[in-house]
From TrEMBL:
Highest taxon of source: Eukaryota
Protein name: Leucine-rich repeat protein 1
PIF1/LRR1 pleckstrin homology domain: residues covered: 1-121
A Pfam family reported for this protein in Swiss-Prot or TrEMBL: PH_LRR1
Subcellular location(s) per record: Nucleus
One term under GO cellular component: nucleus
Residue ranges the record marks as coiled coil: none
Role: Substrate recognition subunit of an ECS (Elongin BC-CUL2/5-SOCS-box protein) E3 ubiquitin-protein ligase complex which mediates the ubiquitination and subsequent proteasomal degradation of target proteins. ECS(LRR1) ubiquitinates MCM7 and promotes CMG replisome disassembly by VCP and chromatin extraction during S-phase. May negatively regulate the 4-1BB-mediated signaling cascades which result in the activation of NK-kappaB and JNK1.
Description of how the protein assembles with itself and partners: Component of the probable ECS(LRR1) E3 ubiquitin-protein ligase complex which contains CUL2, RBX1, Elongin BC complex and LRR1. Interacts with CUL2, RBX1, ELOB and ELOC.
PANTHER family linked to this entry: LEUCINE-RICH REPEAT PROTEIN 1, PTHR48051
The keyword Nucleus belongs to this UniProt entry's keyword annotation: yes
Pathway assigned in UniProt: Protein modification; protein ubiquitination
Length: 419
């Protein structure tokens, strides 16, 4: 029987035993079995520990030589086997919990003198290099020639870069790497993202720069990426808009959207309260959403967008007087924070409520409103601002909404007086 884990062998007789638990363990292969060459059924059972430095391994007698098992943290893949002779503690960590339980059970039976023939023993032979080497956590591939076609990726990968490989889709083998923290698939030909990428629950950085993406799935925004994704690079693709659900990715710190075909930014972008770096240069943005005012950024780059010239004196009036029953009900639902969901309302109504506008008076409006654009100095939301145009400007138009003619008239009076 064999077990791969990290091992630290600590002597209980040396004064340095106070260091126990401070150092990191060494990757090792543990084997439980008889020494080769012994007659079948003869000889004792040994525990052999093989490491990269000692692949031949150190052997410890097991039968009637175990003083105590420490298994309090076995569910976390940790345990300690205390031997009588020599007086050492074999500390195990980073093991598969199920495999560790089975291994300890076999060691316990061997210690008690159980019939050797009934034990799942292995031959005590030197370990292979691949069995004791440190698991590979990083792989960088920068050409199609080096991309593995027949071999699986190491299950232990935390950082994978596969750039300039002409990939048309994301490899399903990549989606099985549950420990991935950083995935760089830049400079490929990927057109669509599979929903299963949202199952990479540890993913913190996703780089899709220079691909052929036309959309970003709403399903991804509702996946476990909500709690993990901090860096997202979608620059140099073919995206025209982002889904309503995009602002559910509330752990985002750095978002790159440069060189796409975006005609608008996410409506509720202000919900990204951890966002500190935003670049959406060279898109087709005519204005910014009203929620943009809620951002608190360290750096903002909106250079090269065809921003419209704002004119608050020329409003876009979408008012319906009197208000429809649907509008009244929707406003009341948002204003009084009445709980709702697809179990209570049709899904299209839920989606409409999610993008309800907010008037300057604080009230909500759905499809009946007055819309204008106002100039905002981008330094109000960002410490460092890349110039919006070649003229040295740092201002951009932002949408404002009003729930009624009264609210718009009051704003207009104040605006004209201030000017």
């Amino acid at each position: 029987m064999r077990l791969q884990c990290e091992v630290e062998v600590v002597s209980r007789l040396l004064p340095t035993c106070g260091l126990r638990g401070r150092g990191r363990g060494t990757r090792a292969l543990l084997s439980l079995g008889r020494s080769p060459g012994r007659a079948r059924g003869g000889g004792g059972v040994y525990l052999m520990v093989c490491t990269a430095r000692d692949r031949v391994g150190a052997r410890y007698k097991v039968q009637e030589n175990i003083e105590r098992f420490f298994t309090r943290f076995v569910e976390e893949g940790k345990a300690t086997v205390r031997l009588r002779e020599p007086a050492v503690d074999v500390c195990l960590s980073k093991a598969n919990a199920s495999n560790l339980k089975n291994f300890l059970s076999a060691v316990r039976l061997a210690h008690q003198g159980t019939d050797i023939e009934a034990l799942p023993l292995s031959a005590l032979v030197p370990a292979k290099t691949s069995e004791v080497e440190k698991p590979k956590t990083k792989m960088i591939i920068t050409s199609r020639r080096d991309y593995p076609l027949t071999k699986n990726f190491p299950y232990s990968l935390e950082h994978l870069q596969a750039s300039y490989c002409k990939l048309a889709r994301i490899d399903t083998r990549v989606l099985c790497l549950k420990k991935l923290r950083k995935l760089d698939l830049s400079h490929n030909h990927i057109k669509q993202l599979p929903a299963t990428i949202g199952e990479l629950s540890c993913l913190q950085e996703l780089n899709l720069h220079d691909n052929h993406l036309e959309s970003f799935s709403g399903a991804l925004c509702n996946s476990t990426l909500q709690k993990s994704l901090q860096f997202l690079d979608l620059s140099q693709n073919k995206m025209k808009a982002l889904p309503i659900q995009f602002c559910q990715l509330r752990e985002l710190v750095n978002l790159k959207l440069d060189d796409n075909e975006l005609i608008r930014l996410p409506f509720k972008i202000g919900q990204l309260d951890r966002l500190r770096f935003l670049s959406a240069a060279r898109n087709k943005l005519p204005f910014l959403p009203s929620d943009f005012r809620k951002l608190c950024l360290e750096k903002l780059d909106l250079f090269g967008n065809p921003f419209e010239q704002p004119n608050p004196l020329v409003p876009n009036i979408q008012l319906k007087i009197p208000l429809t029953l649907l509008e009244c009900a929707a406003r009341a639902t948002v204003n009084y924070r009445i709980p709702y969901g697809c179990h209570l309302l049709p899904s299209h109504l839920c989606e409409d409520l999610e993008v309800a506008k907010t008037c300057r008076c604080g009230s909500a409006c759905l499809s009946s409103f007055v819309q204008i654009t106002l100039t905002m100095n981008l330094h109000h939301v960002a410490h460092t601002v890349v110039l919006v145009d070649n003229m040295g400007g740092t201002e951009a138009p932002v949408i404002d909404y009003f729930c009624s003619l009264d609210c718009y008239s009051q704003f207009l009076d104040r605006h004209l007086q201030s000017n």
